[in-house]
Design goal:
alpha/beta; 7-stranded mixed β-sheet; 3-stranded mixed β-sheet; 13 strands
Length: about 400
Amino acid sequence: MPHAGIAALERGLAGLDRDDLRRTRRVLDSPQGPVVREGGEELVNFASNDYLGLASHPRILAAAHAAVDAFGFGAGASPLVVGHARAHEEAEEAFARFTGTPRALLFGSGYAANLGILTALADRSAAIFADRLDHACLVDGALLSRAEFHRYPHADLGRLEAMLSASKAAVRIIATDAVFSMDGDVAPVAELLALAERHDAWLVLDDAHGIGVLGGGRGTPAHLGLSSPRLVYMATLGKALGGYGAFVAGEPAVVEWLLQRARTYVFSTALPPAAAAVAREALRMIEEDGALVATLHERIARFRRACAERGIATASTAAIQPVVVGESARAVELSARLRRLGQLVPAIRPPTVPQGTARLRVSISAAHTPGQVEGLAAALQEALRDGAAR
């Protein structure tokens, strides 16, 4: 008898193909860097979140090798059993100092961290208020927490305040990206924190795309000069910091509660000690060399100028530079055309972005040369012109 479930999945996959929404994985034959090898070709890489070019930096590799020599590779257990090594402890202390927060806790990923935060702080008596464009992990954490879940229109402070004012929940949590991953815009964090103060709420801030980029590399709160005991701050290690994992930082009682009750922390094997050592070295590099972050911002500004000269609109001042083209098929076609021009730029489609806003997502790195970012602007102009001609 045919398996009805498999047939249903096959129909679903055919629908993804019909709507130009099926994803495929690229197989790289090189380390991450400004140029990568795929399918026997060298491509200028504008797809990676390696914003400071640290993923393959010699100092990062040396830190990883030294940690493997000292601690082996696997952590062997969850942190609360016997998986918490000296490398993890030192990385947590370094991150707290780096961000000016009292205490920090190392998680396996940013996704796991946000699920852990929201499910530990919220229950059925709570209400969570999330920006409509928040990352999926904040949405999933809110749903798993079983709290009332409210979503406000993107950056709409008036609507959020009305929701907070109407809420009778015992615990209120505002959850937002700091830098939105598909648009590159920065949340109104100061105003959100003021609302949290006014309505006795937590502010959970996901700074995956702000750490290492804004505030001299120290993140969005540093960029805006903000701190508060109401702030629960999450930042990932797998983007600008060149490694893998995430930290959550905040008041000692908050971090201790997460250590005791965040299920994604308690019931997960700890990160390899080498990942913690890499995080610590990345923080040290940013502290020692201000040119790392400054170079990134020079490359961003150069790319935006080169686009403006060619009539290509850009709005973000962060490392994420979206070029919205509308339909998924057009985004896929333009991405393929850019690849033929030697440029690796991904097509981003629903459900990652709203219907009708498929886009090319350009990620700028400090490791890119001036010629590479200007070359991408020229390639974009050519691809968009050729696409319009067809």
